[in-house]
Amino acid sequence: MSTGQAVVVVGAGVIGVTTAHALLDEGHEVVLLEAATQAARGTSQANGGFVSAGFCAPWAMPGLQRQILSALVKRDAPIRWRPDGSWSQLRWLRDLFAHCKAPDFADHRQRMVRLALLSQAQLRKTLDRTALALDFQASGVLQILRQRPEQRILDQRVEALEALGVKACWYEADQVRAIEPLLNPAVSLAGGLYVKDDAHGDCEQFVQGLLAWNIQRGLKFESGVRIDALELDRSAKRLRAVRSGTRRWDAQAFVFATGVQSTALLRPALKLPVVPVKGYSVTLTVDASQGATGAVIDEASKLAIARLGGRVRLAGGADLVGHDLQVDEPRCERLISQYEALYGPVSRSHATLWAGLRPMTPDSTPIIGATPVRGLYLNVGHGTYGWTLACGSAQLLADSMAGRPTALDLTEYALERGASQAARTSQTRPSYT
């Protein structure tokens, strides 16, 4: 589409706001609509805070089937599944399991890491340009290990990351403690895998700051707008407008960055393979002399830790339980206990418990680009890596809408990618159409 045209972006989380930012750069007249009363009220509000290419990997991997099925009877499993009675959840699990082959895992991981590296570069440009004030550190991510892997396995992990373009190295236990000096001395450490160029920060601050910056340069933002109808042409092949009650917005193009709401919202026009996966976080207020100093992943417990100024964000757990947003307090208490085992006692008096629904596709790769419905574009399905992939996804979408070559092969992120893969291989793959 040519520049200077009207574009409506639906959804003001990190995906929607970065998309609006990239489209404004193209010279479009952009209207951003959000159902909540302000931006970043969904999964962008209190996620783990990582911007990490090094630890960006798909859910679908060999052995996941056994792990999910065993979670039916294990309450403390890192991944839990509770059937919600819907066929869509069962179909999604079937498609997820179909991707749990080693070659598929490698392919999907390469896609995700390529997009993550592009996104990191775009994020750096955005932060340099906007000078947003937020709790952000580009100080790398450290994964700590209690047992040292065999040297052969360790070399393979580092080489695999370097082959993907990620700078990683092994740190001995004393080097780990130099980076994280407040780690409990009683914790037995074998060492850690350090990814130098990864970063972390407060995604909510980023979204709200970038939104305010773009409003100053012409972005029109409306909150409290819940889209309840799509207006298609008579052939049902073009989206002409979206409606909320009696209000109507028409445009040349519409981008839906609506996360877990996308499946229901777009059902009249499209079938999307996106389901909600609930994740948890706890935000603690700490003194400067307490707790983690950077971004840490504990390989044993799967706990993710991010220092955000005077706070520490703890994240972990994944529950496939439908659209249930209730905070599971024992789940959050477990995160705190895991953190205390690493860094010592913390005060719970100002702990903020949170749960968010992450929009997941069966192969963990987001859906970016045009759809069979003319004028309707998607930027959805980023799962647990919304902020990690946001700026790159927005740039890919803006470039494709402008008709320019994209930095990455957009067919790998297309809605129809399952069908195109099936045509290229002898194996049956799930169709996303």
> Mean pLDDT, nearest integer?
92
Rg is: 21 Å
Q: Could you tell me how far the N terminus lies from the C terminus, measured between alpha carbons in angstroms?
A: 24 Å
Give the low-confidence spans: 419-433
Bulk shape: globular
Number of E strands: 21
Helix fraction by DSSP (H/I, runs of at least 4): 25-40%
Strand content: 15-25%
> What class do helices, strands and sheet pairing give?
alpha/beta
Number of helices: 11
Main sheet characteristics: 9 strands, mixed
Description:
- A hairpin with a 5-residue loop joins strand 20 (367-370) and strand 21 (376-380).
- Strands 4, 6, 7, 8, 15, 16, 17, 18 and 19 form a nine-stranded mixed beta sheet that branches.
- The protein is of the alpha/beta class.
- The longest helix is centred in the first third of the chain and has 29 residues, at 102-130.
- It is built from eleven helices and 21 strands.
Q: What are the main properties of this structure?
A:
single chain; 433 residues; alpha/beta; 9-stranded mixed beta sheet; 6-stranded mixed beta sheet; 11 helices; 21 strands; 24% strand; globular; disordered C terminus
